[in-house]
């Protein structure tokens, strides 16, 4: 017996190579239930966390998971590190240069992996510079919300070197080392709803 389109749409997940994965479809990222955050070393000691409150994107889950695509745009003015003076400096030309480059974008180029663990490769454009990045992605599950929407969730993390995007401002410490680490860890929690 062949599955009808309605039956296929009613399913929330499917089994691919023994792993439970989301059904194919286009999913819009729900920014109110997602997080785009970063972590960077301060004085070589502690870790400072920040994030962005305004972003949107689409996850296109393909029949073959390896053919899936992701696009995300982040409004850099929505930066928040819980310290207004630091946020103002980060929005300036030493770092994100928000007046001239208000948006950071990610466009996937390749998906590899199996089970619930995948590697998402893509191009990150920031300050008018595009470089490749790689994210380790874990599929967290799928479910139906109280309003009948079909939702999926992923966690992802990766690391970039900020100098590669021209964000090389720093200060040398008297004791050696720098005020701000060059490596930035990216941490994402993404919930998306099927269109």
Describe this structure in words.
By secondary structure, the chain is mostly beta strands. The protein has a single domain, classed as Lipocalin, CATH 2.40.128.110. The chain has 2 helices and 13 strands. The longest helix is centred in the middle third of the chain and has 8 residues, at 84-91.
Short description:
With 195 residues, this protein is mainly beta. The chain has two helices and 13 strands, in the order H-E-E-E-E-E-E-E-E-H-E-E-E-E-E.
Descriptive terms for the model:
195 residues, mainly beta, Lipocalin, 8-stranded antiparallel beta barrel, two-stranded antiparallel ribbon, disordered N terminus
User: What is the count of DSSP helices, taking H or I runs of 4+ residues?
Assistant: 2
Q: What multimeric state do the chains show?
A: single chain
Per the CATH scheme, the topology name is Lipocalin
Number of strands: 13
Shape: elongated
Superfamily (CATH H level) name: Lipid/polyisoprenoid-binding, YceI-like
List the domain count as a whole number. Answer: 1
Low-confidence stretches: 1-9
The main sheet orders its strands as 3-6-7-9-10-11-12-13
Tell me about the largest β-sheet. 8 strands, antiparallel, barrel
Average the pLDDT over all residues and give the rounded result: 89
- Class by alpha and beta content: mainly beta
């Amino acid at each position: 017996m062949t599955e009808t389109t309605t039956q296929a749409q009613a399913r929330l997940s499917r089994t691919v190579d023994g792993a439970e994965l989301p059904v194919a479809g286009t999913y819009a990222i729900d920014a109110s239930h997602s997080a785009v955050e970063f972590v960077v070393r301060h004085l070589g000691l502690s870790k400072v966390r920040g994030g962005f409150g305004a972003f949107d994107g689409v996850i296109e889950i393909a029949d073959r998971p390896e053919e899936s695509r992701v696009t995300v745009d982040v409004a850099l003015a929505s930066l928040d590190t819980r310290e207004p003076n630091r946020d103002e400096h980060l929005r300036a030309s030493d770092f994100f240069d928000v007046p001239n480059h208000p948006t950071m974008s990610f466009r996937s180029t390749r998906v590899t992996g199996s089970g619930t663990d995948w590697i998402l490769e893509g191009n990150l454009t920031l300050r008018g510079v595009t470089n490749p990045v790689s994210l380790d992605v874990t599929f967290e599950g799928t479910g139906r919300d109280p309003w009948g929407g079909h939702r999926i969730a992923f966690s992802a993390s990766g690391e970039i070197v900020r100098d590669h995007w021209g964000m090389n401002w720093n200060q040398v410490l008297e004791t050696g080392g720098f005020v701000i680490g060059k490596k930035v860890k990216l941490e994402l929690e993404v919930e998306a709803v099927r269109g």
